[in-house]
Design goal:
The chain has 473 residues and is an alpha/beta fold. The chain has helices at residues 2-28, 36-57, 107-110, 113-119, 137-147, 157-162, 164-172, 186-189, 193-211, 230-238, 260-267, 287-302, 323-326, 335-348, 382-388, 447-453; strands at residues 89-93, 102-106, 124-130, 152-155, 176-179, 217-218, 242-243, 248-249, 275-281, 306-307, 355-359, 362-366, 372-374, 377-381, 392-396, 401-406, 409-414, 419-423, 429-433, 436-439, 442-446, 458-463, 468-472. The two termini are 36 Å apart. The structure holds zinc ion.
Length: 473
């Protein structure tokens, strides 16, 4: 994330200098009308655009954000009337069941050369890696870092549980994490929806335990084609997940040991599409995929592509339901099962709502993903919450504790002991047990515990259609 932060900052600075240069030259030319006040307005306006993009990049690792060209992202709020897939192209799967690539249909075919040229600027490729993390993943991460590129990793729960440090490394580098089920076993997964669901939830809990965030993107092992029926698609959508297939298959799993040259060739077979979701693997034995990766990235860069991160708002790529899958006559989950499992699950991802913290005279907004709601309790990342409300947070490695200095008090938030030691303004010391989690390299604490320990007892909590809000003294 570091590199991607430095550039915009530099851009803002350069832009600021340019604005100053223009203003200076204007005044040097005798611009009498330029009062200092209007200079200020001008320069603020000039910077507003860049400041906004800078803010979007300054999200903590809990919410990795990457510049995405607007065309590749559905923005339901900003453009409620846009038909789905505003680029005018839809995807359907070729009728050949072997085919794992998609055919673009409709408007794309009629796109004039001129339109194709103008859309060139916003072409985006989403690199996706399935089946990891494995011994191949560190090499993939290293290449992505060297190339300054982000990717999406559809992890297997089984692998994630045995290599949590790699899941953490993926997350900390700002890549996206999707759910690829727990064991990848087709027989289990496609015997009926409830087993598929069980594995999605199991993997989700594994990833959440490592990163603190539930993956909302799902990729079906083997892709949805021939596997998913309408029930799978419908219930996953109802539960708040976004299913994502791919548009280009690198072919790296078509047989054992596919050589890097062949993977490269398949990966760059289509350099004309506005949006490419490229299927690669970082599971065990996929060293050749890592070997091919630098050249794949270079070819897409040379063709003018930007590298996007998939998220639940990305335009979904989904194969159609095959006649074979539709005819499987699997047992459908009962209404009671659906209302017990699917309906409440959607609430987990409903957070479109931010959490406003009103503490004393200060207020800050935690975006969805910057807070958790568990068993009716809010959990927040200690540093983010405290620093935005005017306090300071230090870190003690030996005791894995956060040291909060806020409101005249010093509070040691100890994750090992699950307690907070509060030194009051008058020097009195008080110990409180508290729920504290170390997730990745961030401490998450119960908001109530934090506010009480720092002398800001909560006064009220409310929820409306736009936001959640907690008021404290
Ligand atoms: Zn897979």
């Amino acid at each position: 994330m570091k590199e991607s932060r430095e550039n915009p900052i530099r851009r803002v600075m350069i832009r600021g200098l340019l604005v100053m240069a223009v203003l200076l030259s204007m005044s040097a030319l005798g611009g009498k009308g330029q009062s200092p006040a209007s200079w200020r307005t001008f320069s603020l306006q000039a910077e507003a655009g860049s400041a906004a993009s800078l803010l979007s990049k300054n999200n903590p690792p809990e919410v990795p954000v990457q510049d995405l060209p607007p065309a590749a992202v559905k923005n339901a709020e900003a453009e409620p009337l846009q038909p789905h897939g505003s680029g005018g192209s839809a995807y359907t799967l070729a009728t050949d069941p072997q085919a794992s690539t998609l055919q673009k249909v409709s408007a794309a075919a009629g796109t004039s050369n001129q339109e194709a040229k103008s859309s060139k600027a916003t072409r985006v490729v989403y690199l996706t890696f399935d089946d990891g993390p494995s011994a191949v993943t560190p090499r993939v991460l290293q290449i992505l870092q060297e190339q300054g590129v982000k990717a999406t990793f559809f992890v297997l729960g089984e692998q994630a549980a045995s290599r949590p440090e790699l899941v953490n490394a993926i997350w900390e580098q700002g890549h996206a994490i999707g759910n690829h089920t727990y064991n990848h076993n087709y027989h289990d997964l496609y015997s009926g929806f409830t087993e598929f669901w069980r594995q999605i939830k199991q993997t989700e809990e594994t990833v959440r335990g490592i990163t603190g965030v539930r993956p909302q993107l799902v990729r079906a092992p083997g892709g949805t084609f021939g596997h998913f029926d309408n029930t799978y698609f419908y219930l996953l959508k109802q539960a708040g997940y976004e299913v994502m297939d791919w548009t280009v298959d690198s072919g790296d799993s078509s047989r054992r040991g596919v050589p890097a040259a062949e993977i490269l060739q398949h990966s760059v077979a289509d350099l004309d599409s506005r949006s490419v979701v490229l299927l690669l693997h970082d599971g065990s034995g996929h060293e050749q995929s890592a070997k091919a990766l630098p050249a794949i990235i270079e070819r897409y860069k040379a063709a003018g592509y930007e590298f996007g991160l998939l998220n639940a708002q990305s335009e979904p790529v989904q194969f159609r339901v095959s006649a074979q899958a539709a005819a499987l006559q699997r047992v459908k989950p009962s209404k009671a099962w659906i209302s017990a499992n699917i309906v409440p699950n959607a609430e987990l991802f409903a957070p479109g709502k931010p959490l406003a913290l009103e503490v004393g005279r200060l207020e800050t907004i935690l975006k969805p993903g910057e807070y958790n709601l568990r068993n009716g309790q809010y959990f927040v990342p200690l540093r983010t919450a405290v620093e935005r409300l005017g306090g300071q947070v230090g870190w003690d490695t030996a005791t894995r504790s956060g040291l909060v200095s806020w409101n005249g008090r010093t509070v040691t938030v100890n994750s090992k002991k699950q307690q907070m030691e509060v030194v009051q303004p008058d020097g009195a010391v008080e110990l409180k047990t508290a729920e504290i989690q170390l997730i990745g390299s961030s401490l998450w604490v119960s908001l109530r515990d934090l506010l009480e320990a720092t002398g800001h007892p909560p006064l009220a909590a409310s929820v409306n259609v736009e936001e959640r809000r907690v008021k404290a003294l």
